[in-house]
Amino acid sequence: MSEAVAPLLFDPTDPAVALDPYSTYARLREAHPVWRSPASGIWFITRHADTHAAWRDKRLGSDFSHRYTAEEFVNPEDLQPWRDERYADFKAFERWDMIALEPPDHTKLRRLVTAAFTPRSIEAQREPASTLINARINEARERGSLDLVRDLAEPLSLTIICDLIGVPAADRMRILELSHDVVSMYEPVPSDATKNRANEAVKEFTRYTADLIAERRKRPADDLLTGLIDATVEGDRLSDEQVISTVMVLLMAGHEASVNAAANGVAAFGQHPDEWQALRSGAAPAKSAVEEILRWDPPLQFFQRWVLDEGFEVQGVEIPRGSKVGLMIGSSNRDPRKYADPDAFRIARGETSHLSFGGGIHFCLGAPLARLELELLFDALAKVLPSIDLLPGAVRRPGFQFRGFVNLPIGAPRVS
Ligand code: HEM
Questions:
Q1: Cβ count within 10 A of residue 333
Q2: Beta carbons of 163 and 180 less than 8 angstroms apart
């Protein structure tokens, strides 16, 4: 099969596609297992088996600088971003951003973070998370209104990750704003204004985190930040730059996707009242519902990789070294080759084979925490809401990579 050239098949910058990407994916996936976007140059991989394999393929990497200089690797006409000093702060952050690293740096950093981010520390969040959810639900009941994002999902994920790391309560709303600005850099085609805002946000975030580390060095606490400062694996410790980037990554990854997943799930139930009743009756447990929510409408739609070696092929299409590929989670999760009736939202499926947490060496480090938060949230909502009533005023997040809602008003639980 030859490379696809139809330029209008898929435009991730089109707001209509961001609003409903799934019908576009279906057309793209059937016609092109791999499709090169003329706008971004990204080769999008659309089918489950190919995306699953690509995540584990050693010829692909999140970075290339462990093997090549930019001059050796990137087309001369595409070199400008590597020479551009306007985004130097962002580059400094990415130098030790785990998601953007490859072995051996990635292996070392991930082991040290895993040592501090233990299953016990996650399980310890169960009670505080439940307490917070119930308190927020009670407030909504008394107030008579509930914005799922602002009143519940955001406070939940932000509080849990900030408590785990040790970020003071007063600073959290600013962290939320900075985080939104930083992650907008990961859209497929960010504008200069977006990139500038992201770089400024990284600058402030870095200063903030450095101060927090200095503070914790003086007064250690029982938190992940102190754990990261102290963590050792075979005598290795994290440098300050590594701790700063890691804390920033955890603070952003620790709420962005979880909040969007919660909102996408509530919206899905609003459109599928029978499934809500299945959850309420216990016909399907919240654990299984969470997996279907993640499959059906994933909060992260794609991730990018570099092709590091010649010979990387998808369904007979060779993708040249130096190219970027887009691993399409949203499209792969709806692939009829993998899932029967893939567009149907069925919480009893209990399928954990979706690609929403990625795969290979970068598989989501926070997946157990995200699953715990979502399970507790849906369990609690199922107890108090006889139906999910979607109210006017819902606002989808702009952009394509992060799929979720800015606001999602729903009917509040009634005073009994
Ligand atoms: C529903 C919620 C979440 C989803 C869908 C999600 C999804 C993902 C995906 C797809 C990746 C792989 C990125 C890649 O391959 O380039 C990833 C990596 C990662 N996630 Fe999550 N995530 C979620 C929640 C969380 C939470 C709560 C945390 C932190 C507490 C977290 C921390 C991380 C970290 C640190 C990585 C990088 C791992 C590595 O590079 O080795 N995530 N996540």
A1: 25
A2: no
4 belongs to a structural domain = no
Q: Is 124 among the domain residues?
A: yes
Instruction: Supply 346's token pair.
Output: 């069925």
**How many Cβ atoms sit within 10 Å of the Cβ of residue 222?**
8
The single residue listed with the structure tokens 């953007």 is 100
Residue range 360-368: mean pLDDT, rounded: 96
Distance 249 CA to ligand 1 centre (A): 9
CA of 145 to the centre of ligand 1 (A): 31
What single string gives the DSSP state of each residue in 285-340?
-HHHHHHHHHHHS-SB-EEEEEE-STT-EETTEE--TT-EEEEEHHHHTT-TTTSS
408 contacts: CB under 8 Å, gap ≥ 6 = 147, 148, 149, 263, 266, 267, 390, 394
**Six token digits for residue 272:** 């599928």
User: Before 104, cis peptide (omega within 30)?
Assistant: yes
The protein residue with its alpha carbon nearest to ligand 1, atom 43, reads 364
We report the CATH number of the domain holding residue 45 as 1.10.630.10
Block residue for tokens 């959810």: 133
Sequence-ordered list of residues with C-beta below 8 angstroms from that of 209, at least 6 positions apart, any chain:
243, 244, 247, 248
Residue 415: inside a domain: no
Does a structural domain hold residue 387? yes
Q: Does pLDDT of 209 surpass 70?
A: yes
Ligand 1 centroid to residue 369 C-alpha, Å: 10
Average pLDDT, the chain: 92
Q: Could you give the number of structural domains in the chain?
A: 1
Predicted local confidence at residue 8, as pLDDT: 63
Structural domain for 80, as ranges = 15-410
Q: Is the pLDDT of residue 382 over 50?
A: yes
pTM for the model stands at 0.94
Ligand 1 interacting residues, C-beta cut-off 6 A? 62, 98-99, 110, 161, 249-250, 253-254, 257-258, 261, 299-300, 303, 356-358, 362, 364-366, 369-370
Structure confidence at residue 2 as a pLDDT band (50, 70, 90): very low
